[in-house]
Every structure is written in C-alpha cells, then in structure tokens.
Amino acid sequence: MNALPDSILVFERGWLSSNNILLLGRHETALVDSGYKIHAEQTLELVRHALHGRRLDRLINTHLHSDHCGGNAILQAHFGCQTAIPVAEADKVRHWDVEALSFKATAQQCDRFGFDTTIAPGDVLTLADMEWQALAAPGHDPHSLLLYCAQERILISADALWENGFGIIFPELDGASGFAEQRATLDLIATLDVRMVIPGHGAPFDDAAGALARARSRLDYLAADPQRNAQNAIKVLLKFLLLERQRIALSDLPTLLLAMPVFDAANRRFLKQTPQALAEWAVGQLLKAGAARVDGEYLLNEKD
Fold first, then answer.
1. Each residue of 15-53: pLDDT tens digit?
2. pTM recorded for the entire structure
3. Other beta carbons less than 10 A from residue 175's beta carbon
C-alpha cells in the first residue's frame, strides 16, 4: 500500500467514532472530523499527543452526523480552534435546531458547538501545505463533502465510500431521494485520480476501483428494494446503540427504537411492523452476524 505523507496522520477509531485525520502544515494544523461524544476525551488526548505541543488551529467537518462532530465542543474549548462546517448546515448549527440536525432523529448525543466559517462544494482549502478541493457528496447525507488532494492523489471520502460499501442512505428513509445522489457521488469519485482513500470508518486503502465496484453492487442491491435500506438502517442504528451502551435490556429495545424518529419514519414507510417484532428481527440479525450476544435478559455487544 502507498504510504500517506508524514504530514497526514489517521486515527482509525472504529464504528462508534469516525476516523480523525490530522493534517500538519508548517504553520497551521487541522483536524478533519472529531468522533462521537462519549469518545471526546479520548479524541482530545489523541490529538494533543500527536501535536507534540503545537496547537490545533482548524477543525473541519465533512458532515454533521454525531459520530463525525461529537468531539467538536471539547476540541473548541481546549484549543479555541477555528471550525468549518458544510455551508448548508450553517443555520441549523447557528440556532442549534435539533429537529433539523440528525442527532435527535437517531437518538444520538452531541454537545452544542459553534462554527467560524463554512465550506461549499468547489472551495479549495490548504491543509498540511497541500491544496484540497471540497466536492459535494450527497447520498448518505445530503450535505456531505469529500476532500480531494490532486497533488498527492488522496481522497478523504467520509461515509460516501468505504472499502466495503458506504453509510446508510438516510434521505430514502424519509421518502426523499438518496440512491440517485449516492450513485452520482460514486460516479464523481470514479473521475478522480486516486491512489489512497481515507474513509470515515475503516483503514485507509489504495484500491479505489475495487471499492467503487463493491459500492455500486451494494447500491444496486439496496435500490432494487428500498425495504432493504430501511432494514439495514434499523440494524445499524441498533448496533450503534449497543456500541455506545455495551449492554441493553431486551425489554427496553422497542422503546429505544421508538425514540428514534428515523426509525418511526422507516417503519411506517417500508417495514410496517410492530416495534417488538422489528426489535426481535434486528436482534436476530446482530446475533447472526456475531455482532451481539444474548446473556439472560440482556443484549451484549460482541465486537466493534
């Protein structure tokens, strides 16, 4: 695998927190994405250790899902770093509109944070003394951005492209278009000369063509029957809760799922099951995948 430049450090965090990407310039440092709230102290320590006494100057969010911006508040408080968010999210953050932001819909946590500037598709940023172009990446999230460095042929893909797939296509759960946008994002990535992809989750990888082929196959599968996307969302959201809590009483699962507006929307539109039946189905899926186990009256997290 082609190595990243020494000025780019990737903290691979798993599935509860997104990867954090630290970019070290001669005169300025920047971090792309800050992980989930319950890992915020760990994020701060990782960044402090890697900076070796330097300050963090800039914080950039590819999109505003809780696992990508949940560490914003603690980093802002500690470093006073300038923060940039996708331009379409500015009013939501300015007024901290929890209905418009995704945190309440997914029953996830995020401490309130502010921002200093916005990033729009087409903007060019200087990070680690390299030029990076911001590119629109709708699909998983309507306002998500990619960051592409043509000089080093590196793509920061967030949740638009993983080595094996991509993030939940959330807009489709509410009846909006998302599959077509995700396909257009994959087509856009295919036009770029990429030698290394830094995804939002998972290790950096150098086979962009193979990842794109797998992502397109996955997208075809989901788009052929939108119920599959809804089922995948329920399963993934339950796994996220389990990663966060490590242990959940089986009797609490229907109530926990009902607390998520995104669950209610997906169930009403596509699945049409009782919360109890859907909780039992989701538990069965996690057990089958080896991602959870049952111990008496509890569902336990089995692997990250």
1. 999 999 999 999 999 999 999 999 999 999 999 999 999
2. 0.96
3. 12
Q: What is the pLDDT of residues 208-242, one digit of tens each?
A: 999 999 999 999 999 999 999 999 999 999 999 99
Element (H, E) at 32: strand 29-32
SS3 256: helix
φ, ψ at 119 (rounded to 5°) = -120, 130
Q: Is residue 16 classed exposed, middle or buried when 0-12, 13-18 and 19+ CB atoms within 10 A define those classes? A: buried
Residue 198 contacts residue 3 (beta carbons within 8 Å): no
Beta strands 117-119; 124-127: pairing state:
unpaired
Q: CA–CA separation, 45 vs 293, rounded Å? A: 32
Please choose, from the candidates 145, 146, 159, 166, the residue with its C-alpha nearest in 3D space to the C-alpha of residue 215: 166
The residues that bridge with 23 in the sheet, in sequence order, are 8, 30
The label of the residue with tokens 């990508």 reads 68
Q: How far is it, in rounded angstroms, from Cα 234 to Cα 168?
A: 10
Q: Are 21 and 8 in contact (CB under 8 A)?
A: yes
DSSP 186-251: HHHHHHS--SEEEESSS--BS-HHHHHHHHHHHHHHHHH-HHHHHHHHHHHHHHHHHHHHSEEEGG
Gap between the Cα atoms of 240 and 219, Å rounded: 21
Which of 9, 6, 7 is closest to 198 using CA atoms?
9
Question: Which domains does the chain show, CATH number per domain?
Answer: 8-224 (3.60.15.10), 227-301 (1.10.10)
Residue among 291, 297, 223, 289 at smallest CA distance from 15: 291
Q: Which DSSP string do the residues of 113-163 spell out, in sequence order?
A: ---SEEE-TT-EEEETTEEEEEEE--SSSTT-EEEEETTTTEEEEETS-BT
Q: What angle do CA 170, 188, 234 make, to 5 degrees?
A: 15
| pLDDT confidence of residue 164 | 98
Give, rounded to a whole angstrom, the gap between the first and last alpha carbons of the chain. Answer: 24
